[in-house]
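Re: the 296-residue chain
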Amino acid sequence: MTDRSLDAELRAALDWLEAHSSEKTRDGMARYGIVAQHALGVTVGDIRSLGKRIGENHALARELWRTGIYEARLLAAFVADPDALGSSEMDRWCRDFDNWAVCDTLCFHLFDRTPHAFGRIRAWATRREEFVKRAAFALLASVALHDRRTSDEPFAACLPLIEAAADDERNFVKKGVSWALRGVGARSRALHAACVELAERLAAAGPAERWVGKDALRDLTRAKVRAGLAVREARRATANAPKRGSAKSTPARAPAAPKRAAGERVVSARAAPARKVKKKAKKAGKAPARRRSRAG
């Protein structure tokens, strides 16, 4: 792709966003706590629709991000290639987060599909910047929901990060921490028990920890969450099951019959009892009765 064609694609995407913007949508962002310096006012549904039309285009995603426009950065989440997104680029984009919506959209639709997810969770969980720290736990919650193959151990290893960050009183951070705790706890029965124990411990601690603990407990103790654990574990078991035709799924063959020596007679296990019955009947002077046919 030439620079000229990339510029044309960027211009076309921005023109489309501007054509679908509205003052009503832009004003409504404030009601949801979305503060962005450069916002056009385009609904997320429209942005996702444009992303599907464009398809995967990582070069375009980089250019969209560089514009600093709120909607263009959301669009980048839907057209970027997760396999082409390196950890250093994730760090750069994360440092640019200036509201919860762009943070959560990138984590939920892009970052959680990269091979660097757990590494970025650990790296961002102790950062001071509000939306970088939130990104750590929004990403953990997203991976917990979407990843059906990873075992419980990497998620259990993140529980100390949740506990350490639970004392952060900033609204968007503590909500992200609670989201992560609830997401990990809904993943399996073992993780659910560990998360409930952690939530109870937090609920008896300081003000910020208490909020996180009680908020998580309200969700984790719902009957719907408990019922969903069985469904999720069944899905994970299906995803991890060997495919038909693989070495693990091929049934073992029955052992081969032993070779017989030359002239050795082979007596069938089914035929042996019948021969004994006939022999006994002959000695008694009687022939064994034949079974009647069903026709009568």
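Residues 1-81 form one domain.
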